[in-house]
Amino acid sequence: MTLPEMPKNLPEPVLPPNAEVVLKKRYLRKGGQGELLETPRQMYWRVASAIAAEEAKYDKSSFSVDDLSRAFYELITTYRFLPNSPTLMNAGTELGQLAACFVLPVGDSMEEIFDAIKYAALIHKSGGGTGFSFSRLRPQKSRVGSTGGIASGPISFLRIFNTATEQVKQGGTRRGANMGILRVDHPDIIDFIRAKERDGDLNNFNLSVGLTEAFMQAVEKDEEYPLVAPHTGQVKARMKAREVFSLLVQKAWESGDPGIIFLDRTNRDNPTPKQGEIESTNPCVTGDAFVMTDAGPRQVCNLLGQATNLIVNGQTHPSTGRGFFSTGKKPVFLLRTKEGHSLKLTADHPLLRAASPSRYSLNTQWTQARDLAPGDKILLNDHRTLAGWPGAYGQTEGYLLGLLVGDGTLKADKAVLSVWPASAEVNGDDECGVEGIMEAAKTHAMALPHRPDFQGWQHLPDRGEFRMSLSAVRDIAFELGMSPGSKNLTEKLEQTSSSFYQGFLGGLFDADGSVQGSQRKGVSVRLSQSDLTRLFVVQRMLLRLGIASTIYQNRRPAGQKALPDGKGGVRLYPVQAQHELVVSGGNLERFADVIGFKDTSKQSLLATLLRAYRRTLNRERFLATVDSVVPVGEQEVYDVTVPGIHVFDANGFMAHNCGEQPLLPYEACNLGSLNLSRYLSDNEPVEILWDDLKQDIHLCVRFLDNVIDASRYPLEIITKAVRKNRKIGLGVMGWADMLFRLQIPYNSQEALNLAEKIMDFIQHEARSASKVLAEERGPFPAFSESTYAEHNQGPFRNATTTTIAPTGTLSILAGCSSGIEPLFALSFVRQVMDGERLLEANPWFEKALLNAQCHSPKLMEEVAAKGSISHLDYLPEDIRRVYVTAHDIEPVWHLKMQASFQKFTDNAVSKTVNLPHEATKEDIWNIYWVAYELGCKGVTVYRDGCKSSQVLCTGDGDKSKDPAKTQRKVKERPDVVYGFTQKVKTGYGFLYLTVNEVDGKPFEVFATIGKSGRSITAKAEAIGRLVSLALRSGVDVADVVSQLKGIGGEHPVFQKKDMLLSIPDALAWILESRYMQGRKAEMDQALASPECPDCGQELIFQEGCFICQGCGYTKCG
Distance between CA atoms of 643 and 320, rounded to whole angstroms? Predict the structure, then answer.
């Protein structure tokens, strides 16, 4: 595509202070020797004309390429808008990669993991950053089915990704930058939270923990929450939510890592969730499938569009707000197992298969239905830990209805229950356990509405029968879908309470069940029925109570059987074929505990046989054997998203679901920012130029949509994903400058109101502009599957239009404040050539001082020393109130500002809460909690001085370093030393640590645990001796702590809200608590401003990253 020639009369851009340095260093094209190949004017024209050239593809456009090139040039050279850095660097060049960041999926296989590393390297080479979620990786020490080996877990692969990034050079313009996320319910979450506690670890990653609503609710209620293995959906452990939250706070206080993201909120606002499902597999089940919820069993067709708490392996896991949703009419297959379980599902629906089950491990893997073969073992849900669920009716109604279904008659006016004690005697039951049934039934009957003259059981001597008639039971049967002559077990009956289940199954087994077998042949509880469908329902009901069973069809063929003749005797009658449900093995004890028999003979026999077992019954592994998978036509099918585990119970099976992500796999972000400070009038009073802002918003949306077409992405799969949804992110910068001009304090309700008003305006106009583009060019290809289409909105050209992204370097180019951040400092000192110091100040602040006639060089030096004027009481109150900096503002105002912008932003809002070094862990706890309550999607906290290489950034500071320590000999031990012994809990028992001191400093350490002769005792003693040697050699206790702290072990424990990972970690914890808490004065003196590695300027921390205001260097690319 030929780009328009640069006009000769094109105006030169006026460069703000420092912009020229940044342009030469990062953006202007260079030759092989580093020589500049273009001027700022040529660079800006290159960008404007390259993006405008895409307009030629669209016949309906009202712009010519030449006119649009000039419009874009004027837009960016007046610094009203700037696109993201890759667009400035690469537009119109051979590389042509214009996106800033990419999302790469990391799957749970070696192939998928190293594909992601390869793709990340290609993206970094092209100048982009990458985001990864490691939540799908199985935890460390999990079995790997294909090799029989042990998985190393996500943290080990995180380090491999970091090392690979270190090796990639991004064309000399952008450094490799990664975002790594792990869900809070992943079993390796503690290791992830602590992954960066040593300086230099994972230096190419920013880490964030994905917090769920369920976790935050557990924190609020001080409850435990489950840690779930993503590859199986099984709960591996449970932890106190507050202890994990406390550890998050501690690490944020110590180092600023990791941050937090509220995942459920991010997923909730995804406008194209179906695209996420289509990009991966789209597993579906039919609407009649039963799923287990905290309200009891429910059919999928009754859960559409509503958030649902689903039960998986006895644990609660919330779905997303959409609940179950239709995915269309598709070919469906019927899966049957040899045990009797069944499910209708699509061919691509994964079920959890035991790949190579052994005595100790199942070695599970997800397998699509189409790939299942007869004989394969697949997992069922184990609900033995489920306490129960609410619902209609209780044990009383259930027991009587069970007797009715087993041996009763349902009539139009009443339900008749029958028992035959004489029949029991004929069949050899001398003790006649039927009396237990009669007593239980009468007790339950008396609890229901009945006539005053109700007598209970009535004897019919000539039939050897006892009867009890109950209209209340008839009413219940009718309500549950039964009718005279039809005692079917309906969907309504399956949706009753767990208490009803226990009563109903107890009554049914009392009427029609039996206890059979011996130790030699095996004991079992059996239920015989001619109605096979009834047994299928009973099997599902038992499984929900944690009892697995097997159905044997046609156990007895049709024929004749001796039955009571109604006259006290028996005779042969023709009978239908009989099928049998069998409960055996470890399920027998569960059956006896949860259901049992009221028939005293059956209960006594079962108890006797169970007591006689000399060995433990075979434990139930909740496996079913595939019998067949056959097509059964087309049906409407449905799916759901269960964040974290991505599993639900479908007719008892462990069934996979879809997964939503805020940026879908392989998508990229195409970003740009409006400079709000440019939309203010020059005259007094200062006003916002709303018409100018509206016009530029429409131009910016057109620019960013063209960027999608102009960009050459490093992978074809990325190209397809980006152009399918065409997401753009128009954001803002210069917010603090705008507030200065308008004389509005950042920390005021007036500022919050204006933030909402201006972002609402931007979002509304951006969507309007996207709608205009949709009329010209067509909507984004996935529009018909988006939530917009579902709500009759649009059509739109772009799935999203607004994002408030970091603008550190861009704001230097534009000469404005960064993003929506307050100023970090009103004045600062810049180092120039030959050591000269140049004082720079915010121009609006300087103008205010001049207008107030209080400007002076001495004052500016004093402001530069602190960065703030909050301590200068002699300045006018209105100036001190308006010109506040990041550290002057209470954290809650930072969060309120973020939340105000978030209300009207499609995607994330980049914002840092800057805290002084003196901030406490409680401060950070409160910040996180307020962010959650205000509806923020995430929050980044940075406490000055929390990293040894990244500390206080205002003022001069003492940058001297400690002199190199000289080598010392080991000190002799005095004859008498004094110290203390501290007892601390570890995963191996109590550790007794004795620390002796000389001159108030630790001199030697003795570590004792357990009894002598044990290997763990020897290790503890060895660690103590080596630590003693180091201390007696003059090694600082802080260095000892840094070497021992964080060493992991097999049995971590909590000690006073701190997690101790091992004996070395416990030793470090004691030494740190005793000797390093009082070093604040020393630390304050050692705090020195971090220097830019390129120009020596001070670095500041904002929008989640360190940035140099002098040359534009940034640690985040």
Answer: 7
Amino acid residing at 339? E
Has domain 395-442+452-517+525-531+539-621 been given CATH number 3.30.750?
no
Task: Give pLDDT, residue 390.
Answer: 96
Can you give the pLDDT at residue 281?
A: 32
Q: Residue 343, SS3?
A: strand
Task: Please enumerate in sequence order all residues whose Cβ is within 8 A of that of 199, keeping only pairs 6 or more positions apart, or say none.
Answer: 255, 947, 948, 949
- Residue 947 has a pLDDT of 55
Give tens-digit pLDDT for 515-534: 998 877 889 999 999 999 99
For domain 19-98+670-790, the CATH class is: alpha beta
At 276, list the tokens: 């996420």
Model pLDDT, residue 632:
92
Residue 446, Cβ density class (10 Å: 0-12 exposed, 13-18 middle, ≥19 buried)? exposed
Question: SS3 letters for 769-825?
Answer: HHHHHHHHHCCCCCHHHCHHHHCCCCCCCCCCCECECCCHHHHHHHCCCCCCCCCCC
- Residue 673 and residue 733 in contact, taking contact as beta carbons nearer than 8 Å: yes
Copy the structure tokens of residue 1096: 């020596």
Name the residue ranges covered by the structural domains of the chain: 19-98+670-790, 101-268, 281-382+627-656, 395-442+452-517+525-531+539-621, 825-884, 978-1086
pLDDT at 817: 92
496: which 2 tokens? 């009753």
The vertex-945 CA angle with 940 and 949, nearest 5°, equals 100
Q: Which fold has domain 281-382+627-656?
A: Endonuclease - Pi-scei; Chain A, domain 1 (2.170.16)
Helices (H) and strands (E) in the chain, counts: 35, 45
Tell me how far apart the alpha carbons of residues 47 and 856 are, in angstroms, rounded to a whole number.
42
Distance in angstroms (rounded) separating the CA atoms of residues 688 and 742:
9
Alpha carbons within 13 angstroms on the beta-carbon side of residue 284 total: 23
Quick one: the chain helix, strand, coil %, rounded to 5?
Answer: 35, 25, 40
pLDDT at 987: 72
Q: Are 883 and 740 in contact (CB under 8 A)?
A: yes
Q: What per-residue confidence (pLDDT) applies to 176?
A: 56
The residues pairing with 518 across neighbouring beta strands, listed in sequence order, are 522
The continuous run of DSSP H or E covering 268 comes out as helix 263-268
What is the dihedral angle through the alpha carbons of 922, 923, 926, 930, rounded to the nearest 10 degrees? -170
Which residues, given as ranges, of the chain have pLDDT below 50? Answer: 169-174, 273-282, 424-431, 658-663, 832-834, 948-968, 1078-1089
* Residue 834: predicted pLDDT: 47
Q: In what order do the strands lie in the sheet with 1001-1009?
A: 978-986, 989-998, 1001-1009
pLDDT at res. 694: 98
Query: What digits encode the pLDDT tens for the residues 395-419?
Result: 999 999 999 999 999 999 999 999 9
Quote the crossing angle between the two packed helices 65-77 and 40-52, to the nearest 10°: 140
DSSP for 1028-1060? HHHHHTT--HHHHHHHHTT---SS-EEETTEEE
Neighbours of 779 (CB within 10 A): 22
Each residue of 94-106: b (16+ CB within 10 Å) or e? Answer: ebebbbbbbbbbb
* Rg of the chain (C-alpha set): 36
Whether the predicted model's global pTM rises above the 0.70 cut = no
Kindly give, in sequence order, each residue whose CB lies less than 8 Å from that of residue 59, ignoring residues fewer than 6 positions away: none
Q: Identify the burial level of 385 via C-beta atoms within 10 angstroms of its C-beta, where 0-12 means exposed, 13-18 middle and 19 or more buried.
A: exposed
